Amino acid sequence: MPWDFDANRPIYTQLTERLRLRIASGEYPPGGKLPAVRELAAEAGANPNTVQRAFADLEREGLIYTQRTSGRFVTEDPAAIDTARKALAEEKIDVYLGGMRSLGYTAGECGRAGGRGRQNKKKRRNDPCLFCNVRA
User: Fold this and answer.
1) Residue 8 pLDDT more than 60?
2) Is the dihedral of CA 91, 92, 95, 96 positive or negative?
């Protein structure tokens, strides 16, 4: 079944984001082989050239690499994957905080609203929100 894409944003950007998420979450493990361009294009319902462009972006970021005759693979560099995970986490936190602010919550209140049942977590100095401090 084709992936759902937002018509207001470039498809290659959305492909890149989804692949980055799959890499950061471990769905595509370090050193693991990625699907071929045509296979992923068929799965996503996208043009192979668009998938190729997304792969090129991920390769520039250092999240994947190409072996000439074997295909594309996820990097085995834990620092690159950790950087991607942290960037994705920051994006999610920003969305959460923005939504809570639009509801009229302050930074401290959003931690209490989202962090119910997490009172035993320690608050780190200079962090505005308890919810944002929760680590997986």
Assistant:
1) yes
2) negative
